From TrEMBL:
It is an enzyme of class 4 (lyase). GO terms for biological process: fatty acid beta-oxidation. GO terms for molecular function: enoyl-CoA hydratase activity. Belongs to the enoyl-CoA hydratase/isomerase family. The keyword Metal-binding does not apply. The keyword Magnesium does not apply. It comes from Alterirhizorhabdus solaris. This is Enoyl-CoA hydratase. Coiled coil: none annotated. Keywords: Lyase.
Length: 283
């Protein structure tokens, strides 16, 4: 893997129900460019629509997850005083995938790279991972929803600290404050993340995981009575569904479950789209 002209900026591999998406500009720390942004969005949408994929792992080639915006591109923006969007697709795209997305964070995870990691459902970091919001030290604001995401993960005080200071946060602290779910030895990172994703792919209902993901994200902006009422309605549908019957039968028979995949072509569903949320249908 490398940054040669014939190398794609993003790699996609599918095996045993897990899609592994690798940011592939290792010579530049997987710095974010328009080409990488488009390729990442295409890979994630492709994995979302592929019924063979039940979980996604996102990682970076080489020694970094992503150092953030490409230095050359940021330098040009600083001179011009404005930037065009790097991709037509929104930067919250992982949140809209009905499939679990696990970030395997290796090395540096800065700026837009950190924002993308926060949009994943689970973050597993190597013990040499390091994080920085970076924005305040470049004269920028909290980008692309990070001021919404970060306080919900680490609390307002920690979020203010990380955003205002843009200081470096090492893996141990990241685990302690809840920025990542767990920290593992660097040599084991991809294997640990893939093993976790494979457990989801083989043991959990794709339909149930999609519904739970939408519930958790949507309920961040609603009240408890609304959340409770929505769960009651969804639960009645689940009780009548094939997945519940298979879950019970496999549990009683002490065998692996055989849950069906999401329908082929099933695409992104923004969790704040109420109609799509309740029906599971794409807007």
């Amino acid at each position: 893997m490398g940054d040669a002209a014939d190398e794609p900026p993003v790699l996609l591999a599918v095996a045993q129900g897990v899609a592994t998406i690798t940011l592939n500009r290792p010579a530049h720390g997987n710095g974010w460019t328009a080409a990488l942004s488009r390729a990442y969005a295409a890979a994630l949408e492709g994995a979302t629509r592929d019924p063979a994929v039940r979980a996604v792992v996102l990682t970076g080639a080489g020694r970094a997850f992503s150092v953030g915006g490409d230095a050359g591109g940021l330098g040009a923006v600083a001179e011009q005083g404005a930037a065009a969007p790097l991709a037509a697709t929104p930067y919250w795209l992982p949140l809209a995938s009905p499939k679990p997305v696990i970030a395997a964070v290796n090395g540096a995870c800065f700026g837009i790279g950190m924002q993308q990691a926060l949009c994943c459902d689970i973050r597993i970091a190597s013990d040499d991972a390091k994080f920085s919001t970076a924005y305040a030290r470049r004269g920028l604001v909290a980008e692309y929803g990070m001021s919404w995401l970060l306080p919900r993960l680490v609390g307002t005080g920690n979020a203010m600290d990380l955003l205002l200071s843009a200081r470096l946060v090492r893996a141990e602290e990241a685990g302690r404050i809840g920025l990542v779910n767990r920290v593992v030895p660097a040599a084991d990172l991809l294997a640990e993340a893939t093993d976790y994703a494979r457990q989801l792919a083989t043991q959990c209902s794709p339909g149930a995981m999609a519904a739970i993901k939408r519930q958790c994200l949507r309920d961040l902006t609603t009240d408890f009575p609304t959340s409770y009422a929505t769960a009651e309605a969804l639960l009645q549908d689940a009780f009548a569904g094939d997945d519940f019957r298979e879950g019970m039968r496999s549990w009683q028979a002490q065998r692996p479950p055989a849950f069906p995949p999401l329908p082929a072509g099933h695409g992104m569903i923004p969790p704040w789209d109420d109609d799509a949320f309740m029906t599971g249908e794409q807007p």
